[in-house]
Each structure stands twice: as C-alpha cells, then as structure tokens.
Amino acid sequence: MSEFRSYLYPPGHPRIADLVGVDAYAYRDLAREDDFTGGLIRGWTPLYRNPFVGVTEEGTVREGLHPFEPARPGEEAPTSGMVAAAEHLLGLLDEATSARLRHAVDAVEWQTWANPEFMQFDTGLRLDQQPEEVREAALALVRASLSEEGYEITRRMMLINGFLGDVVGLPEILNDFSYNIALYGTPDQHAPWGWQLFGHHAALNCLVVEGRMSLSPVFLGAEPDQIDEGPHAATGSPFAARIAPAIELMAALPEDQRRAAVVYQQMVDPAMPEGRVHPGDERHLAGAFQDNRVIPLEGTPVAAMPEPARRLILDLLEEFHRLLPAGPRAARMRELESHLEETWFSWIGGHAPGDVFYYRIQSPVVIAELDHHCGVFLDYDQPQPFHIHTVLRTPHGNDYGRAWVRQWQAAHD
Asked: Model pTM?
C-alpha cells in the first residue's frame, strides 16, 4: 500500500462528506465563507492589484538585469507552432467565450493565478466547463510551447490532481481539467503575447517576444506525488530530480557551509519569526500573489561552495527549468550561470534521505523553492514526503516577461 493511503479520511468524515457533489463554483463560494480558506482569500486578494514591481532582495529593483534582445540562433522559442495552436484554440470559440479567454499582454489578470484547489479568480476559461475539443486545443497550446518532457511533467500534475479527486471522492472539485487558461496579447511571431494555465498544484505563465521565452512564475506540486493505480499509474515521484540532488548537495557541503545553509533546524521552528510559516504557503516565500515581495538572501553563498556542490546547484536549476524547450532553456541557463557568484542557497529541516525539508536557490535572476507540506485532502498535520510544492520566479521584474514587454513596447512606441 502506498504511504499516502494510510492518511485517507475515514468514510463520512465531514472534511470530504460535506463537499461531495459540490462543483468548483459552489466550492468557490463555500471557500470564501470558511474560516481558514476565507482568511487566505482575504489576505491574498488585495495583493494582485498592487502595481507590478517584481520580487527583490532589498526592496529596490536592479536596473539592467533583464535587457531585451531577440533570441540568438538556436535558442528561439517554438513561436510558429505556438501561434498555430493558439489560433486553432481561438477558432473554436464564439465571440463571448473568446472575450473571456483574452486579455491585454500587460493586463493585471496575469497576477490572479493561484495554486489552491478553490477558484479564487475565474480568469480566462475553466477547462472542465468547456467542450472536449476546447480542452484538447488548450492542451495542444501548452504542448506546442514546452519541451516534450515539460509538457509531460505539467500533464502529470494535472492527472495526479484528478487521481486525488477520484481517491477522495471529489471529482467535481479535483479533476485533471480543473484548471483555468487565459491568453494575453495577440498570437504573433514577433510582438509579445502569451498564455497562462493555473489550478490546483499547477500554474504556468508563458510569454514569447521576438523568439525569447519567459516561463515564470511556475508552480508545480502534488498530494500525493504518485498515482498508484488506474490507467495513469506510474512509479516514482515526478519531483525525484529536485529532491535527490538536493540531499546530495547538502552532503557535498563542508560542515561550516552546511551549518550556514540551514537557517532553521525544524520545519516549524521556535526560532522562526512570526509569520515565517504561512497557513497556506507554509515555508514558501515566492508563491501566488507574492509578485512584489521582498525576500532577503539567506543561507550560504554558492560562490564559496566546492565545485561538486556548485555543479549540483546548476543541476537543480536546470531541473526547475526542464519545462522550457531546449533553445530557451539554454538561454536561461546561460543567464543563471552568469549570476552564479551572486547566488545563495538556504535550507530548513532535515537533510537525510526520507526527511522533509524546504530549500531555496536565490540570485538576482532566479528564485527556486521546494517545500514539503501538511495535508489538505489527506489527514496529517505535519509535512510529509509525498506532499510537495515547488515555485520558480524571475526576480527584479521579469515574471510574466514583464521587463521584456515594457522594453519592447517602448521600442515600438
């Protein structure tokens, strides 16, 4: 029996029984009135309306970190396929539905994405409310944009969500199409445009301009982290490549650097300041609605690490960017390596195989976080290895490709 099954709520438990037959829109209303989820919503809702600045370490955006230039040869985004897929999707929609899907390329609606199971914002189109051909066309747009492996990872998150819904008996709330998709700008070979997919445990924000691709913010998570029965059953966690190298990295650090990296010994530590563990985000700092958050550097500098540890940092960063097609990924990795001397690594919790933990890799151009979480639709109040959240951001203003969009718009009046 998979470990997560020992944490299933018993039949008739109100956590599940009270939601049976409730659809996503009715659940949205219930979530607003619930003491816990309602508190999360009231805290998050005002944040997305703040003028976008970007995540920073000290509260001031560093100018010149994201200069825009067209893609180098061999590093181009698959724009032609993306445009064709987006136009096919639009061709399936009537005027009113198309209007719901579409927003301006720099619209504030980019910032409404969220990863909980309750629908805080109904931005774009809710896929489980759409005909099959529209759902498949939306997936085709995602597939045309990402690496093949990246698409499979994204789809695996969605399928695990559907598996969880089947296991706990809430398929109306948790299914493999309980996601929203939105389109920003007009699909074009050169001008900036993009798309957004978000829902429970999966959120992607993709923008292309002049062959460049920004895929940020990205949220991927799972509870549980595997499907152990049915047509989509698969062994192993989709997050294994973000966990095992991190444990290896901690073992590769000299003792003084390892002590410096561990900013808190326990996942909920008495030494933590008030608010360090958020009721929804837990230890994550760069999650949904945190577009302008100040996140100070912590832990130990990568520049001082021995070479094997530095390679593992780059391996982890490349794994976080596995969703990008090969060309844009090469461009992004070159950018990350150019700032490796300004990169820091921090850790919370244990660091032996099987331990639960949090880590963050942070530089002026990237934040990558992984955290083990407590139960939401399974019954446990301590973080477990099979409930994982990961976040990827581009600090100093280029989440949603926003810095590039502003520069492109200025150059083209």
From this structure: 0.97
